[in-house]
Specification:
The protein has 478 residues and is mainly α. Helices cover 73% and strands 3% of the residues. One of its GO terms (cellular component) is plasma membrane.
């Protein structure tokens, strides 16, 4: 596999020897990954606001689950629609729409005075998160050279975790300054409302930054706009390579029909293509291992086993920082050892650490109606939880998004992303919505399920997942 050369600060070499304008590539990737930041921020802001939501809306466990998980229904719809809409309107246009949805959601959730209104605006935000979750990785994969695509696509996961951590930091600062998440802050309004309103700032940055980047050249070729695509590809890879790249892309597209959902079926057997099953396994099991319980319910979880609200919010920040470091390690490894080995390492590591958490929570006692971890069990649970987060963000966190953005053939990429993205968010909803009720019944059994899912994911990866390291998108097979 070719590596990036040191031809200059703004240029490198792709795997086929083409000169790459790395400054332009880096600028495009930087803008696109703001979508990942918004994905993380909008998902993570709920962590730390639940006491305020419960107080304002008088929520039951069912109500808490619905308010937290409502965004995920919007995510499923947004992810399902985005892939197809991106084939019609373009990747960039749909990402711009998602940025506007982030702004609307931030304003509405912060101002909501009933649970119903809150859920509606969280659904709107979910549409934006779902669209960004599938389009930002695929956009990056479509404008970057194959030999560094994994590293650049992995930046998306770093930005997701940075967004989550940004939300955790903002929530902590607001709650700490006000005294608690429910205490009054600016304009006499409680701090938890400002936690949602803070999102307007990065959402606005995302919107205006998107206006500065070009459309995906692969989308332009699919729409017959070869001249525009050639101009972008020439700027990316040098003036002598644009036409050849356009020809490669066009050769990979079926000339007889436009992309449609029937492309997901084998033309002979009419059964779902194996590559889609592989994508569904990645999408669903990334959620079945329970990672978003840490990101959505971390504050509540740690308070439930004896930590204060202030300490719980600090633990969230620690988990976010460790996640970023793990993602940096993934970037260093993904184009060296490949996608599949990282997935296997992650599955094994998560199975062990989740097993330890299952044991820890099985020892919990009830003190004054609240769970409590005795003696050294609390620190053990804290260490295991953060090791679990590290293993996830070294593997399944970034690798799933990288592979969904690159593993499908050009002809079926939009449709396959729609289905895989929808499945990912439905799985996320099922896990997040069920957690409050499941945890009330048995926190150890809940984590036992996540541990079992990690074990199963190891064997599914061995059987179904094929390595995509270093392959051009036009070489992907269904």
């Amino acid at each position: 596999m070719a590596s990036v050369s040191s031809a200059g600060p703004s240029a490198g070499m792709s795997a086929d020897g083409a000169k790459v304008n790395m400054a332009f590539v880096a600028a495009i990737v930087a803008v696109a990954t703001i979508g990942g930041f918004m994905f993380g921020y909008d998902s993570g802001v709920i962590n730390g606001t639940q006491e305020g939501l419960n107080s304002a809306f008088n929520l039951t466990e069912f109500g808490t689950g619905l308010n937290v998980a409502a965004i995920l229904i919007g995510c499923a719809i947004g992810a399902f629609a985005a892939g197809r809409l991106a084939d019609v309107w373009g990747r960039r246009t749909v990402m711009i729409i998602s940025a506007l949805l982030f702004v609307i959601s931030a304003l509405g959730t912060g101002a909501a005075h009933t649970s119903t209104i809150f859920v509606i605006f969280r659904l709107i935000g979910g549409l934006g998160v779902g669209a960004a979750s599938v389009l930002c990785p695929v956009y990056i994969s479509e404008v970057t050279p194959a030999n560094i695509r994994g590293r650049l696509s992995s930046v998306q996961q770093i930005m997701i975790i940075t967004g989550l951590t940004g939300a955790f930091v903002a929530n902590y600062v607001l709650a700490h300054t006000a005294g608690s998440s429910t205490a009054d802050f600016w304009l006499g309004l409680p701090a938890w409302r400002w936690m949602f309103w803070m999102q307007v700032i990065p959402a606005g940055v995302f919107f205006f930054a998107l206006l500065t980047i070009p459309e995906s050249p692969r989308y332009l070729v699919a729409k017959g706009k070869d001249a525009q695509a050639e101009a972008i590809l020439s700027r990316l890879f040098g003036p002598g390579t644009g036409a050849a790249k356009v020809a490669e892309i066009r050769a990979s597209l079926s000339a007889d029909h436009k992309p449609k959902f029937s492309d997901l079926l084998d033309p002979v057997t009419r059964k779902i293509r194996p590559i889609l099953w592989a994508g569904l396994v990645l999408a669903i099991f990334q959620q079945f291992v329970g990672i978003n319980i840490v990101f959505y319910y971390g504050s509540v979880l740690w308070q439930s086993v004896g930590f204060t609200e202030d300490d719980s919010l600090k633990i969230n920040i620690l988990s976010g920082a460790l996640s970023i470091l793990a993602c940096l390690a993934a970037i260093a490894l993904i184009d060296r050892i490949g996608r599949k080995p990282l997935l296997l390492i992650g599955s094994a590591g998560m199975a062990v650490t989740l097993g330890i958490l299952t044991w820890c929570f099985s020892t919990a006692t009830t003190v004054n109606g609240a769970l409590h971890l005795d003696g050294s069990v609390g620190p053990i649970a804290l260490v295991a939880a953060n090791l679990y987060v590290i293993f996830f963000n070294l593997s399944w966190g970034p690798v799933m998004w990288v592979m969904l953005g690159e593993m499908f053939p050009n002809q079926m990429r939009g449709s396959a992303l729609a289905v895989a993205g929808f499945a990912q968010w439905i799985a996320n909803f099922a896990i997040s919505f069920s957690f409050p009720a499941m945890a009330k019944l048995s926190l150890s059994a809940t984590y036992g399920f996540y541990a079992a899912s990690a074990v199963v994911s190891f064997f599914l990866v061995q059987k179904l997942i094929h390595e995509t390291r270093g392959k051009e998108l036009e070489a992907m097979e269904g």
